[in-house]
């Protein structure tokens, strides 16, 4: 039997382990801070320490692919291990690759990250809809076929994102049109669809309407980019139960000690749970 749909698996993971998503972003400066060399062996120690610290307790880990690709094929081999060992320890892997391309090439990205035969297949990936939402269809279809998911960039956490994403076309903002198209793909799914969105925890109050989305909302920007648990209610309102807040550097700075990393992550997770009550 195939795996259950991503949306259902995510609901179970969050119920069991809380809503925090911890990012694995091996910045060169963090390797320095952890006393590790800036090479593939340092990357490997960093990333596998993160897996040891988080994968047994946290619902979703989000490795940022660029930091692994920077070390070439050895870095990508480390990423493959991170994916496999995280899943073996019971956490979901959201691979942050932010891919987007014409449909025929998107089908190749879907094979790389969402097919059962790829060693880089994660539980979900981040994708960019800025070649047109429909260009993502091959990835949406492969994800549905294999029980995996997508997180589509809608309103990103960076200050530059707003100029494109708040622009209005036919009376609707670009970001809202992405929300609406994701909602159409999730219609009828229970308990939650597998086409998620990315909306930064930093964006403050917007007029985005998530009421029909029926999908998860990844909210990066906690900690290092300035957002805190208390900011989420203003951004998401009634959609808060579907939000997966994400933090990377603000947790990772507590390494390299495994126990210190784990307790930093659990502290943020508990703060999020308290803020949501
Ligand atoms: O898709 C993402 O994860 C993402 C989207 C977004 O709008 N903003 C954003 O910061 N991210 C990613 O989330 C992580 C944030 O890292 P910290 O700022 O260290 O917590 C990085 O890996 C970013 O690439």
From TrEMBL:
PROSITE patterns hit by this protein: OMPDECASE
Record has Lyase as a keyword: yes
Gene3D superfamilies with a match to the protein in the record: Aldolase class I (3.20.20.70)
Signal peptide: none
Keywords: Decarboxylase, Lyase, Pyrimidine biosynthesis
Active-site residues from the entry: 98 (proton donor)
A Pfam family recorded for this sequence: OMPdecase
Domain of life assignment: Bacteria
Reaction it catalyzes: orotidine 5'-phosphate + H(+) = UMP + CO2
Gene Ontology biological-process annotations: 'de novo' pyrimidine nucleobase biosynthetic process; 'de novo' UMP biosynthetic process
GO MF term list: orotidine-5'-phosphate decarboxylase activity
All copies of domain Orotidine 5'-phosphate decarboxylase, residue ranges: 19-264
Known pathway: Pyrimidine metabolism; UMP biosynthesis via de novo pathway; UMP from orotate: step 2/2
SUPFAM superfamilies in alphabetical order: Ribulose-phoshate binding barrel
EC annotation from Swiss-Prot or TrEMBL: 4.1.1.23
Family the UniProt entry places it in: Belongs to the OMP decarboxylase family. Type 2 subfamily.
NCBIfam families: pyrF_sub2
Identification of the protein by name: Orotidine 5'-phosphate decarboxylase
Gene behind the chain: pyrF
């Amino acid at each position: 039997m195939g795996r259950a749909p991503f949306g259902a698996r995510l609901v179970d993971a969050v119920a069991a382990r809380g809503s925090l998503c911890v990012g694995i972003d091996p910045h060169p400066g963090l390797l320095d801070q952890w006393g590790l060399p800036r090479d593939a062996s340092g990357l490997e120690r960093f990333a596998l320490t993160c897996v040891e610290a988080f994968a047994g307790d946290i619902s979703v880990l989000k490795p940022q692919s660029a930091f692994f690709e920077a070390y070439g094929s050895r870095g990508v081999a480390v990423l493959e291990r991170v994916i496999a060992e995280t899943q073996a320890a019971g956490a979901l892997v959201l691979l942050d690759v932010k891919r987007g391309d014409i449909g025929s090439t998107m089908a190749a990205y879907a094979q790389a990250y969402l097919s059962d035969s790829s060693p880089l297949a994660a539980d979900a990936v981040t994708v960019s809809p800025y070649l047109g939402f429909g260009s993502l269809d091959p990835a949406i279809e492969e994800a549905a076929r294999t029980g995996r998911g997508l997180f589509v960039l809608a309103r990103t956490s960076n200050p530059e994102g707003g100029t494109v994403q708040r622009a209005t076309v036919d009376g609707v903002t670009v970001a809202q049109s992405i929300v609406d198209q994701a909602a159409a793909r999730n219609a009828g799914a229970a308990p939650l669809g597998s086409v998620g969105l990315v909306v930064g925890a930093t964006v403050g109050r917007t007029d985005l309407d998530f009421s029909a989305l029926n999908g998860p909302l990844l909210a990066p920007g906690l900690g290092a980019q300035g957002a805190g648990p208390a900011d989420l209610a203003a951004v998401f309102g009634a959609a808060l139960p579907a939000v997966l807040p994400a933090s990377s550097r603000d947790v990772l700075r507590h390494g390299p000690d495994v126990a210190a990393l784990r307790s930093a992550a659990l502290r943020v997770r508990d703060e999020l749970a308290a803020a949501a009550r």
